Amino acid sequence: MPLSHEEEVLADGWVPADRVSEQAWYWWWNGDEDSGPVIVSVFMGGPLTPPFATAGQLGWTVAQDVPGMGGWWMKIPEPEIRLEWRRAVFGMDA
Fold it and tell me: Which of 17, 21, 67, 70 has its CA 20 to 30 A from that of 32?
């Protein structure tokens, strides 16, 4: 049996807005097949506050609640910086 659209999106590593649980940079896609994802910085406000996308991005003048934005989210992994590079660039240990 073929996967549904939602199952395909989940299988590709996207999560719905209510499963965003870390402060990080994310790809955000509203689910419109005619549009592409955009990069959004997400912050965590606290245990009783939903994650939010900070103001100043994408023309927003106020922060946006991630659950209210809906759509699909994929965390952008931070690159690993090897210890040798840190020493070479900064002259110090990590």
Answer: 21
Question: According to the model, what pLDDT value does residue 36 have?
Answer: 92
> Could you count the other beta carbons within 10 Å of the beta carbon of residue 73?
24
Q: Is the whole-model pTM more than 0.90?
A: no
Q: Which residue has the higher pLDDT, 29 or 48?
A: 29
> Residue ranges of the alpha helices (H) in the chain?
5-11, 66-69, 83-90
pLDDT (0 to 100) of residue 81: 73
Alpha carbon distance 9, 47 (integer Å): 28
The CA distance from 46 to 29, in Å, is 24
Long-range contacts of residues 49-54, Cβ cutoff 8 Å, at least 24 apart:
51/20, 51/21, 51/23, 53/28
